[in-house]
Design a protein that fits this description.
By secondary structure, the protein is mostly beta strands. The chain is 14% helix and 45% strand. The protein folds into 3 domains: 31 residues; 62 residues, no CATH class; 125 residues, Sandwich (Jelly Rolls). The chain has 2 helices and 17 strands. A hairpin with a 7-residue loop joins strand 11 and strand 12.
Length: 229
């Protein structure tokens, strides 16, 4: 009698244990797609379809994610930008920064300009250069004396054609200059001595020709800087 009662109790107990366990196993095996993606932080129920992992901050648009196909890690924290490198501070906090000292920064060359007055003056070239962060840069430019309009020098070989940077493209406000006397002649190319420019923050400066005792056409062929240092 006791044996029969024990068997009956066992039969009643098995379904209570077996079916929940089997249900849990079935859910685990049947939901691999759900567990292939993990979302942490803000909006935990929403994840980009191509992400395996996302960690989203409360600041909109800032997150770290891992692509499910390529495995590429993307860190979007507001400091990201083309050509930047991930850099840590003194306590290990990371941010995207421009490359270390010694990188080349290319400027634009502008177009042909005409110096019509032999008196000392400044002419905007149309060129510019953008310094990506604070620091001191060494600036170099290459320019050409064009054959048209007619080139003149009131005093033979007694002219200066300087490369200068200004904080404005409309009003000359000198931020750096390579001052020199040059030999005047048609289609002569010249590379300026490098000159130093210091900026307190990311800034665009504008290339001007600072001339005297010269008339004719000028154009920059190359403008660049090395830095910051």
């Amino acid at each position: 009698m006791k044996k029969s009662l024990l068997i009956m109790k066992t039969k009643k107990l098995l379904p209570r244990i077996f079916y929940p366990v089997m249900l849990a196993v079935a859910m685990l095996l049947g939901s691999s797609n759900v567990f292939a993606q993990v979302k942490i932080g803000t909006n935990p129920t929403t994840i980009e379809p191509n992400s395996n992992l996302e960690v989203e901050a409360s600041t909109p648009g800032r997150k770290t994610k891992i692509d499910k196909t390529t495995g590429q890690v993307t860190i979007t924290d507001g400091t990201e930008g083309a050509g930047k490198v991930l850099t840590s501070d003194a306590v290990g906090g990371t941010s995207w920064q421009n490359p270390l000292s010694g990188a080349m920064v290319n400027g634009t060359n502008g177009s042909q300009v005409t110096v019509a007055n032999a008196s000392v003056g400044q002419t905007y070239s149309g060129g510019s250069i953008t310094f990506p962060r604070a620091g001191t840069y060494m600036v170099t430019a290459r320019w050409i004396i064009l054959g048209s309009p007619t080139t003149t020098s009131p005093i033979a070989n007694h002219a200066f054609i300087n490369t200068a940077l200004s904080t404005s493209s409309s009003t000359y406000s000198e931020a750096g200059i390579a001052a020199e006397w040059v030999v005047v002649g048609t289609n002569i190319q010249h590379t300026t001595p490098s000159f130093r420019v210091t900026v307190a923050s990311p800034q665009t400066l504008y290339f001007w020709f600072y001339t005297g005792y010269f008339t004719g056409g000028l154009q920059f062929l190359e403008t660049f800087a090395i830095g910051p240092f």
